[in-house]
TrEMBL record:
<dbReference type="GO" id="GO:0007031">
    <property type="term" value="P:peroxisome organization"/>
</dbReference>
<keyword id="KW-1133">Transmembrane helix</keyword>
<keyword id="KW-0812">Transmembrane</keyword>
<keyword id="KW-0472">Membrane</keyword>
<dbReference type="GO" id="GO:0005347">
    <property type="term" value="F:ATP transmembrane transporter activity"/>
</dbReference>
<comment type="similarity">
    <text>Belongs to the mitochondrial carrier (TC 2.A.29) family.</text>
</comment>
<dbReference type="InterPro" id="IPR045900">
    <property type="entry name" value="Peroxisomal_Ade_carrier"/>
</dbReference>
<dbReference type="GO" id="GO:0005778">
    <property type="term" value="C:peroxisomal membrane"/>
</dbReference>
<dbReference type="GO" id="GO:0015217">
    <property type="term" value="F:ADP transmembrane transporter activity"/>
</dbReference>
<protein>
    <submittedName>
        <fullName>Uncharacterized protein</fullName>
    </submittedName>
</protein>
<dbReference type="GO" id="GO:0006635">
    <property type="term" value="P:fatty acid beta-oxidation"/>
</dbReference>
<keyword id="KW-0677">Repeat</keyword>
<keyword id="KW-0813">Transport</keyword>
Length: 36
């Protein structure tokens, strides 16, 4: 049971980091467009 919980938790963590990267990239693109 604990192993399963740990696996699911680590899985959500990877998804979270990916989402953060996408958000950061989008924000960077938006600022680049605004500054131009």
């Amino acid at each position: 049971y604990f192993k399963r919980l740990y696996l699911s938790r680590s899985h959500t963590k990877t998804i979270g980091t990916k989402a953060n990267l996408i958000v950061a990239a989008a924000a960077g693109a938006c600022t680049a467009i605004i500054t131009q």
